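During the no-cost extension, the postdoctoral fellow (Dr. R.K.) reprocessed legacy sequence entries with the updated structure-token encoder. One reprocessed record is reproduced below for audit purposes.
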Amino acid sequence: MNNRFILPFAAGLAAVLSGCVTTQDTSSSPPASQADVHYLREELRRFNARLDASDAEVGRLAGEMRASRSGQSETASASQVQAMQAQIDDLQRQIRALDAARIQDKKDIYDDISKKVASLLKTQSPPPSRSASQSGYEHVVQAGESLSAIAAAYKVKVSAIVQANNLKSADQIFVGQKLFIPD
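Re-encoded structure tokens follow.
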């Protein structure tokens, strides 16, 4: 742009932007021609277009910045989800370990009980040895039966049943136990 248009352009631009009409002292500068006014209007239109484009760019950048911020919150949410998934995986590993320990505990308890039962069977007195001349009955103890009731039913003495079965006491019978009842 040459210098002869700068002053009138600046004055015209100021008038248009401020909405005021000013008068110039035209003694120092030549009057604006119709072409100059048209040029200034065209320049003003270009500046307005650039301003609109700049506003649009600022709006676009603001939108990108908001999207970036929300993307960061989505990233934070994704990292929280990953942390939670890691915790869930850890808990599942712990549950599997506890299940395995529970199965092992069951096996250990079963083995321990089996050993104790075998030990009890070994320490239990062997069935009474009966001579071929000894005759009698075999009785399986039922729930609620006592040795005295069994003895009364077979019409024998309690001491005879205790002795025939090598019992330590008349109170040591249990349900399902087989007793030899002598005649």
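The first helix runs from residue 3 to 18. DSSP finds four helices and two strands in the chain. The remaining legacy entries will be reprocessed before the final report is submitted.
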